[in-house]
Amino acid sequence: MKEIVLINITGPDRPGLTAAITGILARENVRILDIGQAVIHDTLSFGILVEMASETGLSDVLKDVLFRGYELDQQVRFTPVTAEEYSRWVTGQGKPRHIVTLLARRITAEHIARVSDITARYGLNIDHIDRLSGRIPEGLPANQGKGCIEFSVRGEPADPAALRAEFLAIAQGLNVDIAFQQDSIFRRNRRLVVFDMDSTLIDAEVIDELAKAAGVGSQVAAITERAMRGELDFKSSFRERMALLQGLPVSVLEEIGQSLRLTEGAETLIAQLRRLGYKTAILSGGFSYFAEQLQQRLGIDYVYANALPVENGLITGAVQEPIVDGQRKADLLRELAQREGISLEQTIAVGDGANDLPMLAIAGLGVAFRAKPLVKQSAKQAISTLGLDGILYLLGFRDREGY
């Protein structure tokens, strides 16, 4: 007759504890059915689900484990598991799994409580909770911290759209980001990341900066804002804005290019992606002049953006086809994936405007970055509280892995 017992051990983390406990079990050829260990602030939580023949002296084995745990200053608890309970546990391994990622400058108890409450109400069981972000030093300014907690959950929500809507609502109310994605083989196997440029890789809309230099800043900014919110067709709005730039001296391009600032986390993200072998691309409705500068600075592999026609040292205001609009971005993402020999599931797209939605929709991971409300609601995932390097957390990377 077989007996199944769950052994839980808690106490100060000590080198050699796992070897000591499993060494006792090994003497009776105990079968390990499940095992897990976590250390939080030098406190150990260790669990082993074991199966052993009752005739081998089960009570003697457990007594030895209890005594050894006492010597190592540990609390030991034994819980018998019935055959029916074990069968239900085995059956549960076939359920779908998802990852819930919580991002904020500082993680609070309310954040955890709200996320865990929603997952429970939608029938999802939390299997693991892990901190991906590094340890935050005491006294660090609140706007400089990075916090990330990852929940591994089991089950399939009956209404995924409603679940996402609730996550989005509390994210906006608590000033956090919450991502919900399927835990598939593709999650840590993405190979291509494409970025919008303006207000994504750089902290500005270049066409607005050009318009200021041309004395038509307010007119162009208003058109840009409406286009990014999805209120205007991008192509027609682009032609309208370009016409307002006619006659601007080309000499202002270099000055504006030097003044552009990278978005928080952009340099870190691109450097880590390159280190990990990812291909990167800029797919921008902005201008190739500035995109190519970023390409050289960051080591971007591909650049597709709009031309800025010049004659006699002046911007003509004309438009050169094809315009890189939303549909063109999606088409380019497909082309690049095919060129790299990967599936769309292995791609990531990042952008902030309505013209980014087509590529965000078809990418394996579409991220709306500090985006307009319409874009945040429509995209698969959104990051607004952290910098671009927060995307690494969505891929499951930890700060201690060199990030």
Automatic annotation (TrEMBL):
<dbReference type="InterPro" id="IPR050582">
    <property type="entry name" value="HAD-like_SerB"/>
</dbReference>
<dbReference type="InterPro" id="IPR045865">
    <property type="entry name" value="ACT-like_dom_sf"/>
</dbReference>
<dbReference type="InterPro" id="IPR004469">
    <property type="entry name" value="PSP"/>
</dbReference>
<feature type="domain" description="ACT">
    <location>
        <begin position="6"/>
        <end position="89"/>
    </location>
</feature>
<comment type="similarity">
    <text>Belongs to the HAD-like hydrolase superfamily. SerB family.</text>
</comment>
<keyword id="KW-0479">Metal-binding</keyword>
<dbReference type="GO" id="GO:0000287">
    <property type="term" value="F:magnesium ion binding"/>
</dbReference>
<feature type="active site" description="Proton donor">
    <location>
        <position position="198"/>
    </location>
</feature>
<dbReference type="GO" id="GO:0006564">
    <property type="term" value="P:L-serine biosynthetic process"/>
</dbReference>
<protein>
    <recommendedName>
        <fullName>Phosphoserine phosphatase</fullName>
        <ecNumber>3.1.3.3</ecNumber>
    </recommendedName>
</protein>
<keyword id="KW-0378">Hydrolase</keyword>
<feature type="active site" description="Nucleophile">
    <location>
        <position position="196"/>
    </location>
</feature>
<dbReference type="GO" id="GO:0005737">
    <property type="term" value="C:cytoplasm"/>
</dbReference>
<keyword id="KW-0718">Serine biosynthesis</keyword>
<dbReference type="Pfam" id="PF12710">
    <property type="entry name" value="HAD"/>
</dbReference>
<comment type="pathway">
    <text>Amino-acid biosynthesis; L-serine biosynthesis; L-serine from 3-phospho-D-glycerate: step 3/3.</text>
</comment>
<dbReference type="Pfam" id="PF21086">
    <property type="entry name" value="ACT_PSP_2"/>
</dbReference>
<dbReference type="Pfam" id="PF13740">
    <property type="entry name" value="ACT_6"/>
</dbReference>
<dbReference type="GO" id="GO:0036424">
    <property type="term" value="F:L-phosphoserine phosphatase activity"/>
</dbReference>
<dbReference type="InterPro" id="IPR049148">
    <property type="entry name" value="PSP_ACT"/>
</dbReference>
<dbReference type="InterPro" id="IPR002912">
    <property type="entry name" value="ACT_dom"/>
</dbReference>
<keyword id="KW-0460">Magnesium</keyword>
<dbReference type="InterPro" id="IPR036412">
    <property type="entry name" value="HAD-like_sf"/>
</dbReference>
<dbReference type="InterPro" id="IPR023214">
    <property type="entry name" value="HAD_sf"/>
</dbReference>
<keyword id="KW-0028">Amino-acid biosynthesis</keyword>
